[in-house]
Amino acid sequence: MAEQAQGAGTVPLSAVVADAANGVVLALTGGGDPYALSRLLGQGDAMASAAIRVLGADALAPYALDHRAVPGGEDDEAVVREALAAYPPGPDASAVSVWTYRGLVEASHAFLPGGADRFPQAPQAASAWVTDDPWPKLSHRVSQLAALALPGVAQDLADRLAVRTDDLARGFVRAVRRRDWLQAAGLGRWLARLPDVPQTLGLDTGLAFVRRMSDGDPRVALHVVAARQFYGRGG
Amino acid sequence: MSGGRAAPASLLDHLVGGALGWLDTVRDDFRLPPDVTTDADPDHTLKPLGELAELTYLISTSHPRHDLRRAADDLFAFAWDETRDGELFAELVRGEPHATYPVEIYGVFAQAGLRAPAVDRLLAATTAPRGWRVAREDHTRTLGVLNAERRIGLAPHADFTAVLEHTNLGTMSEPWALDRKGAYGLTHDVFHLTDWGRAPGRLPPAYADYLRLWLPAWLENWLDEQLWDLAAELLAVTACVPAAPYDAAAWQRLAAAQEPDGRVPDLGAGSSSGDHAATFTSCYHSTLATAFAGTLTRIALDATGAGQRAQVHESEVAP
Predict the structure, then answer these.
(1) How confident is the model over B19-50, as pLDDT tens digits?
(2) A170 touches chain B (CB under 8 A)
């Protein structure tokens, strides 16, 4: 899907995503100009559409802040619609792909002014894996859905994951031991949203540890900052 | 432990039997060299023999199967013979009166009722000075010394609970912060606290909850790394935790690492150099740990089946 998309330019998609993630982090921490997605990732740019698809709901995360100064505008709507049109999940799409698409659709409904009728309907996403996956596999999947750990998005998923908090916490441990900082940060962000995280996990120190150990990876920073700004975890 | 017991018991007994069989074939490699009390490196002489004694004694007194108890008892008797009925310890203590390792290893035999009066008289003198109470660098090791003192009947040189508080188990370290060395330390915190699984009731409920929660993550991690000795130790710890489920997948992965001759390599597929001494060095610990873990797990499995917690052979009093 979008992870593989490459434009005609010389800048790889990963760099575009990293730049955009930095912009989201800056906005979430109250730095820089008021956030506007369309200034970060403009219209008519295939690479920008791909980056929005990769970031998913996180492209709109700053609009989920209670104290946001400027809501999303018409231009933001246009770039998100473009990304949704360019990368719909196909019939063989993985559950993760459908869920991340769904997350972007839900975030559009929640945070952009046009309302639900200006965007596609959220597709049905398979969810048997939430109860059936063994914890290592579950943890890997959930980390890939980190952008859905956002207020007003994927509440049904959050409710269902709440019974597997211990398993996700084990996944966090495993990810840190493997030095997979992105997976650890994504899981930590979900754990920040879920109730009854085991106290002995040390989620707050763990999130701070993961961010510093990742040596400035913007996508790791985004998850850690989101955990703090939206759910008050991570110190 | 839960689920059907026949298949797990069969797998465990096969593992333990194979491991004891291999240990018997390499018995000569455990023999102490003539310079054991002078120039030989204790890590290559006394450490393997001490481990052999510690774990075969546990198996010989605890395993539900008579044939496996007898095989372990034979190895334990061999280990005692190597100490020349304990005379070795008198020589070791006279050579290094302030060292802890002779006390730790003698404690294994003392617990079995195998004593050497000369050693007892010596230890009464060498462990009495204030200097014996100076804190050791490694708190986990100190727990081992305290356990040995208890076994021998010496006065404890420090407060067990106070020392435990400085270990990974005692602080309940963040589970993601446990590196390899920390994990080995934590398994031994549990072994010393529970007297190698004989007294699981000594594990305070908060520690049991902590272990029950995080053991699956640690096991997955070190099974992935194919660090079989640590995986076996973690499975032994699992068996010390009340109501920990039988981890069938983990046991199958450990069983798959066992060679047809019964040995378990310490890492990956082990060495294929054909060097006998190297094979012994890299396999004796992981093979012993596997036999130990298999025994404790078998006992826990039986105890659950009988609706009660494993009782090995000691009262569950605090150390």
Answers:
(1) 999 999 999 999 999 999 999 999 999 999 99
(2) yes
B70 part of a folded domain: yes
Q: Each residue of A20-66: pLDDT tens digit?
A: 999 999 999 988 888 999 999 998 889 999 999 999 999 999 999 87
Residue of A nearest to B173 (CA): A200
Q: Which residues of A touch B172 (CB under 8 A)?
A: 200
Residues of B in contact with A169 (CB under 8 A): 213
Residue B311: band (very low, low, confident or very high) from pLDDT cuts 50, 70, 90:
very low
Quote the domain boundaries for residue B129.
6-305
Selected residue of B171, B176, B223 to mutate for chain A interface (largest A Cβ count, 10 A): B176
Burial A159-187 (b: 16+ CB within 10 A, else e): eebeebbbbbbbbbbbbbbeebbbbbbbb
Is some CB atom of chain B closer than 8 A to the CB atom of A138?
A: no
Q: What is the count of structural domains for chain B? A: 1
The answer to whether residue B312 is domain-embedded is no
- Report the chain A residue with the minimal C-alpha distance to residue B210: A200
For A180, the closest chain B residue by CA position comes to B176
Identify the CATH number of the domain in which residue B47 sits.
Answer: 1.50.10
- B315 assigned to some structural domain: no
**In a 3-state reduction of DSSP, which class is residue A123?**
coil
Which residues from chain A sit within 8 angstroms of residue B213, using beta carbons?
166, 169-170, 198, 200
Whether B310 is covered by a domain: the verdict is no
Name every chain B residue with its beta carbon within 8 A of the beta carbon of A191: none
Chain A residues lying within 8 Å of B218, measured CB to CB: 173
Count Cβ atoms below 10 Å from residue B205 Cβ, excluding itself.
Answer: 8
Nearest to A172 among B176, B210, B218 (CB): B176
